[in-house]
Write a structure and sequence with these properties.
Layout lengths: L9 E4 L8 H12 L4 E4 L15 E3 L8 H15 L3 E5 L2 H9 L1 H4 L3 E2 L7 H6 L1 H11 L6 E2 L4 H11 L3 E5 L14 E4 L2 H8 L2 H4 L3 E5 L8 E8 L5 E13 L5 E7 L3 H14 L3 E9 L6 E7 L17 H9 L14 E3 L5 H5 L7 E3 L7 H30 L34
Parallel strand pairs: 1-2, 1-4, 2-3, 4-5, 15-16
Antiparallel strand pairs: 6-9, 7-8, 7-9, 10-11, 10-13, 11-12, 12-15, 13-14
């Protein structure tokens, strides 16, 4: 018998068009395996998730750039079809922000955590996060929000090169502009030029002190803050391989006890009165040893299934149990458990699993469809990106030329960061 109330369906909302978001598949499987009917509101065209046997139905998502009103209309239409109150789970920042603002309007058709409607937007905004950390006493990289191009140049000189540049609200970045949410600035002129594109970006530019990379420095924390405020369902983990290397998403992660990271995460959630699922990214300073918060994501992190304890609890199941007033099982952590994204770290996926176990992002014995679909879709995706890049290079130089070296697969089977621009947000602050 399932611990979850299988009479209550779940609706997963993803506005972002990334077809290779493995966190969405993780949520589908986590709830589907427990017997919950899963409705997916996402563009699943060309995505392995549509092959999962645990998806009950796929609904078309709101269009990119849709207004709050349009999102509300789409969700109410889906609620009418579901015909029962459902647990609504945003799977990307744009969805989390929209659902937060629409909470009162969406009730009682959807079950949602009770918290201030603007809080998800506040923590997801990179500029406001710096203020949140200062108020809560959580270390954060020194941050400057310039108000002119000259101030951007002065900030770079004060912070020292290289500098991390971020758009405060990356979910507003329009496609086709070449702007990325996070980049490394290596000259004052680059900072000036980037600031002058603020109008295109749709949000403020902020400049951050660069924290150098190193072993054991990239950490994350996933958790669920329930009705009582207690954080559960997750834990601290360390990123052992990133894609793109040194500046991207977690290709390989390990569940690792870390009292300092745990304390910072729980303190921040408590200070904010946050309720719901959250995903935090930290970088440990090699000089001071302090853990600096880089990102606060008001939704499940892509690798949340890493933190599945001995009772099968993860943050998504914790949310469903809590909102349906079911008790959470008493499970034990599994330190050393590993999470691997196969298309970014294929060799690691082929190695023997650690004693604590391993979760693969795409492949699963009880749900083989997505894993099989992923390789076919991923190969086509990479070829298309390589061809587009090579064509653009040939046109710009006026003559055909071989593929640039930075577009070639490396020995681990990964593809360089230029191919990944539409697959993941580079977290260059943690490079």
């Amino acid at each position: 018998m399932s611990l979850l109330d299988t009479r209550v369906p779940a609706v997963l909302l993803r506005i972002d068009r990334n077809p290779f978001h493995h966190g969405t598949l993780g949520a589908v499987r986590s709830l589907g395996r427990a017997g919950v009917q899963v409705h997916l509101v996402a563009d699943a065209t060309g995505s392995p998730v549509r092959a999962s046997r645990f998806v009950h139905r796929i609904h078309p998502p709101p269009q990119p750039g849709a207004s709050l009103g349009d999102i509300a209309v789409a969700l109410r239409r889906i609620a009418t079809g579901v015909a029962r109150p459902a647990v609504l789970i945003p799977m990307d920042d744009a969805s989390g922000i929209a659902v937060g603002r629409l909470r009162e309007e969406l009730a009682p058709a959807y079950l949602l955590p009770q918290q201030p409607g603007t809080l998800p937007e506040r923590v997801a905004d990179k500029a406001e996060l710096a203020e949140v950390c200062a108020a809560a006493g959580v270390p954060h990289p020194e941050t400057v929000v310039p108000e002119s191009a000259d101030q951007a140049v002065s900030a770079v000189r004060a912070l020292g090169l290289p500098v991390i540049a971020k758009w405060s609200r990356p979910w507003l970045l329009p496609s086709g502009t070449g702007l990325r949410s996070t980049v490394v600035i290596r000259s004052a002129q680059e900072a000036r030029e980037l600031y002058l594109r603020s109008g295109e970006a749709g949000s403020r530019l902020l400049l951050q002190a660069f924290l150098p990379p190193g072993p054991d420095r990239d950490w994350f924390f996933h958790g669920y803050a329930g009705r009582s405020g207690t954080v559960c369902g997750g834990g601290p983990g360390v990123k052992t391989l990133a894609w793109p290397r040194g500046a991207g998403l977690t290709a390989v992660g390990r569940w690792a006890p870390n009292p300092q990271v745990q304390l910072l995460a729980e303190r921040l959630a408590c200070e904010l009165g946050y309720r719901g699922i959250f995903d935090l990214d930290f970088r440990r300073c090699g000089t001071t040893g302090r853990y600096h918060l880089l990102d606060f994501n008001p939704r499940p992190g892509a690798q949340f299934r890493l933190f599945t304890d001995t009772a099968g609890l993860d943050v998504v199941r914790a949310l469903h149990l809590d909102l349906t007033h079911r008790p959470l099982p008493d499970g034990s952590p599994l330190p050393g458990r590993e999470f691997v994204v196969e298309n970014y770290a294929p060799l690691t996926a082929l190695r023997p699993a650690p004693p604590a176990g391993r979760e693969l992002a795409w492949h699963a014995r009880d749900d083989r469809g997505p894993g099989q679909a992923m390789w076919s879709l991923w190969t086509r995706h990479v070829r298309r990106r390589l061809l587009a890049r090579a064509t653009a290079t040939a046109l710009s130089t006026g003559s055909p030329r071989a593929l640039p070296r930075d577009l070639s697969p490396d020995l681990s089977g990964n593809v360089s960061k230029n191919v990944s621009d539409d697959v993941c947000d580079e977290k260059a602050s943690s490079c």
